Amino acid sequence: MKNRDLIIKSARRLDKFTLDDIILVSEIDEQEVADILSELLNEKIVVKNNNTYFFNIKNKSKNGKIAFETEIEPIIIEKEEGYDYFLTLNKETQERIRSYIDLLNFVNQAGGKNLKQLVELFNQTSGYKNISLCTLGRIRTNYKRYGFKGILPSYSKGNVECSIPDELYNYFKKYYLTNQKLSATDAIYQAQKQLQAEQKIEQPYAHTSGAFLRKLKSEFKPQQIEYFRNNIVPPKEKSETKKEIKEPLDMLFKDAAKIYFNRLKTENKFERIMHQKTDYKNHLKEYFGDLRIREITNKVVARFKQKQFDSGYQLISVNIYILTLKNIINAVCPKTNYLVSRSKSLKENTYAMDMNLLTENQISKLLDICYKKYPEAYPILYISLSTGASIPELLGLTWDRIDFRNEIIFLKYFLYGDKLVMTKCNSTMRRLKIDWNICEDLEYKYHISDPEPNDFIFRFESNKQPQQYIEENVLQPLAKEIGVSKLNPSDVQHNFVNMCIKQNIPLTYIQKSLGYYGITNFVKVYRNLIEQQEEDYYNPLDKILKK
Q1: H-helix segments, 150-269
Q2: Cα–Cα distance between 123 and 103 in angstroms, integer?
Q3: Residue ranges of the alpha helices (H) in 222-357?
Q4: Are 177 and 213 in contact (CB under 8 A)?
Q5: CA atoms 20, 26, 27, 28: torsion sign
Q6: Is 397 helix (H, G, I), strand (E, B) or coil?
Q7: What is the pLDDT of residue 380?
Q8: Beta-bridge partners for 431
Q9: In the prediction, which pLDDT does 475 show?
Q10: If phi over 0 gives left and psi between -120 and 50 gives alpha, with beta otherwise, what is residue 160?
Q11: Residue 159's pLDDT is what?
Q12: What is the per-residue pLDDT across 137-177, written as a single tens digit (0 to 9) for each?
């Protein structure tokens, strides 16, 4: 028993070791060491990959006893449904899938916890190409839902189903196959821009250039593509003569307010007059009254918002004041002032047009690159994509608003510049459950940094303000890495919604996760995404009568 305890103690100190390492440290007979390690493997105190052992610290409970896990059957590819299709894949793809299965077996053998170290150990000892922690999460989820088939690619050589819309691809060729020699990314951007101008798409989706180039190479030979890009002159776009719109941009804001309220009076909208006139007199008149319409820019409005926040006003109140501001400007300059939507159709889709939606592969790649290159920002992106919390809310999160035991964060404020602002109203506090891996990392960070309860969880070594740092030093480089033109902090929330809607997660759950008061406003913002999931025909009796 003493030798067993000695080997466990040595294994804990070495963390990663071989049989020879234990023999050298403990000076115990080789056969006895091998027998004891075999027992420890069965009890999951240590795990083994090839000839390397790893002390499995996560199977220790708080009282120091071994916490036994439910035995999980190893995955044997030859016995799995879908093995016949697996054999039709090329050798490289088969090798990749085998590495996934070996990793799953290795993690299951270790009890499925302490994933970071398990993945690192597997990558160091397996001989396969490195697999990221994000990829492990994806294949575990897919295997749990769909079995072995969930890990197999949904296409094979010669049978590729392309997800690129034909119309978009045709416009892409129009811009790419010319002597302008645009990059594939720029050609995709120009194609989507033209489709939007023709009102054939409502919002630009993020596409990787690789898919377009692969489809192009299947249609044309390399010599043909080279010829087109050297000789074809791009078609001249028709220049439309636009009539000059003369609007009173030099009118004072207080004069525009008189016109607006007189209009409401003639329309008998007395209740609106009462509320909005009060907001105008108490908050807008002093700040904007003597400014001309053209002088009311986004920067001026941003300074007004900051002034209101500094005075203790809450987000919902400030948003109401700005809505009144826009209504007044719209009354006299409905077309040329950029604070207001240009037309009814654009106004209805104004939110959707600002969404940069990513594919599943792009999201996986985004997290993978962020984990490697920007580890300090990785928890922020992961939590936002998995819970719907906004980046400003996470930047404003303090240590006293996280419950490590129950893996919950409490959101009541967001960071605006260098000031904490309350989200909606005094009674609002969202409770969001976060991934246990991330919670474990944050708890470790808490213990090694020993912060004050009201210290911010996420800090960066930069002179820039946190949100500016995330936008310029994290999201912009990541956007280039995954092949999209732009990525805003709000896009992370939009992609959370897009993933949830595609997975048929209840809308009320998504709405509450994002912090919307009611379902109505949520549907207004994300109507386009919701409608895309609709089918032409539903018969609710089908499932009942087929039973």
Answers
A1: 166-176, 184-197, 209-219, 222-231, 253-266
A2: 9
A3: 222-231, 253-266, 270-279, 285-288, 298-310, 315-332, 344-348
A4: no
A5: negative
A6: coil
A7: 94
A8: 410
A9: 92
A10: beta
A11: 40
A12: 888 887 887 788 778 775 433 443 445 677 888 888 999 99
Please answer whether residues 113 and 57 qualify as being in contact, where contact means their C-beta atoms are separated by less than 8 angstroms. no
Contact 487, 430 (CB under 8 A): no
Sheet holding 46-49, edge to edge: 16-17, 52-55, 46-49
> Phi and psi (nearest 5°) for 374?
-130, 65
CA atoms lying within 13 Å on the CB side of residue 488 = 10
Q: To the nearest whole percent, how much of the chain has pLDDT over 90? A: 15
Phi, psi of 88 (to 5 degrees): -80, -10
Q: Is 515 left (phi over 0), alpha (psi -120 to 50) or beta?
A: left
Burial per residue of 442-462, b for 16 or more beta-carbon CB atoms within 10 angstroms, e otherwise: beeeeeeeeeeeeebbbebee
Q: Angle 228-230-232 (CA atoms, 0-180°, nearest 5)?
A: 50
65-94: pLDDT as tens digits:
434 344 457 888 888 888 887 888 778 888
Average pLDDT over residues 41-53: 75
pLDDT tens string 180-227:
888 888 888 888 888 877 767 655 565 667 778 878 887 888 888 888
Q: At which residue do the structure tokens 């592969």 appear? A: 361
Average model confidence (pLDDT) across the chain: 79
Strands (E), 426-514: 430-433
Q: Contact 125/52 with Cβ under 8 angstroms?
A: yes
DSSP one-letter string for 48-107: EETTEEEE-GGGB-TTSSB-PPPP-PPP-GGGSTTHHHHHTS-HHHHHHHHHHHHHHHHH
Closest to 421 in 3D by CA, of 393, 460, 398: 393
Residue type, 531: E
The shares of helix, strand and coil residues in the chain, as percent rounded to the nearest 5, are: 60, 5, 35
Predicted confidence at residue 477, as pLDDT, reads: 92
pLDDT tens digits along 262-309: 888 877 777 778 888 888 988 899 899 899 888 888 888 888 887 887
